[in-house]
Prior knowledge:
Structural class: alpha/beta
Number of domains: 2
CATH architecture of the largest domain: Alpha-Beta Barrel
Helix content: 40-55%
CATH topology of the largest domain: TIM Barrel
CATH class of the largest domain: Alpha Beta
Distance between the termini: 48 Å
Number of strands: 9
Strand content: 5-15%
Largest sheet: 8 strands, parallel, barrel
Strand order of the largest sheet: 1-2-4-5-6-7-8-9
Number of helices: 14
Amino acid sequence: xxxxxxxNILDVTLRDGGYLNQWQFSxxxxxxxxxxxxxxxIRQVEVGFLRTAAQTTSVVNGCPATFxxxxxxxxxxxxxxxxxxPADADWREAVAGKLPYLSLVRLxxxxxxxxxxxxxxxxxxxxxxxxxxxxxxxxxxxYRYAEIVDLLKRIAPSPHVDRLYFADxxxxxxxxxIEPLYALAKQHCQLPLGFHAHDTLGNAVExxxxxxxxxxxxxxxxxxxxxxxxxxxxxxxxxxxxxxxDTPIExxxxxxxxxxxxxxxxxxxxxxxxxxxxxxxxDPIWSDDLLETYPHELAGLIDRLPRxxxxxxxxxxxxxxALEKEPCHEKC
Length: 332
């Protein structure tokens, strides 16, 4: 198997990191960021969400065609990736005029929107002979293996899907859980594979490396690990771990972020809570609701919670209420 190279890396700072600043990147910040990535040899960049003009709130939360044209002129050697939510009713308008500038459209999917995603994939291929389409199965740790197999069997027959991604959106996957996931993918869905990690438990680099060994040829990273909840795989840490940087990349990245980006990491207290939740496979985005319901005893309750593929906040609350009725033993 070939060693990983810079061609296997996709930066997602502008899209996933945007959760930390509501995607309010200035054009100047975007230009500085793309220049920095180009200097590191990164050629594939997810530039944001594809939205209609009415839904657009910034250049990266909407990706107007004029913006895509501008960055293409500035960086003709780079490839742009956009993310589209299949649940958006106006998805046709959201992609109108943008496909000529994009190499890949990623469709962020739960089980409920797979059918819509496959319809969108077919439409995108009708509109562009060069566009590639990825199905990104998010919160992959919320599915049992049998459920994943069912999803793969729905995706596999489509001639319009060019890539399959597993997204560990909660950052809950443990390193030993990576190989069985991709074994399922290779058995049931013969597509190029990708992996999107979150670093909630500190496993993002190792999980990403294991995914590559299992056959993934596209790995997501972000500057300084900027991203939702526990953050993503750190670009600098990943390049360093795989000997892909000639310079002290971690120092260079920190200096760049401090000087040129308004992004800041989540509060350490929040990150501690996110990790507590992820250990039990509870989505960190439910943290505020859980704290509101259990402002004082949440940590102890979560510590006693069984690790399961919870799909909804209601499932977690039901499990916690069951715990409250039980006597407390070892973990109390």
